[in-house]
Amino acid sequence: MEEIIKISAVAVIGAVCAILIKQYRPELTVFVQLAGFIAVLSVGTVTVTKVISYCENVFSQEIIDVGYLSLLIKALAIAIVSKFAGEICRDSGNNVLGFGVDLIAKAAILLLTLPMLKNLADVTSGLLKG
To answer: What pTM did the predictor assign?
Structure first.
């Protein structure tokens, strides 16, 4: 709970700074937003660390292949980076570029998860035949 309050406070401060900068130097707004995003990420690393630790515990019980954890983390990283890049594009007035980033990111996540989906289909097929 405390972490969310800290993250929210940092985000609000970053947003207010971006609004203030936009009035006087609009070309610097993107950089202020980027700095705010980095600040939010640095405050939020504790939460992300807890999530990764929990996932490692779940995957270490050998119910699910540990390799899927790396796929999950890679997909999450793709989603986060592309969301950030897409929003910067949209904030800059380039909606088409933002859409392009989102579209390619979704395709990259799908490509990343295809081996897992194939494995799931093989297991399901084996259960239906067996």
So the answer is: 0.63
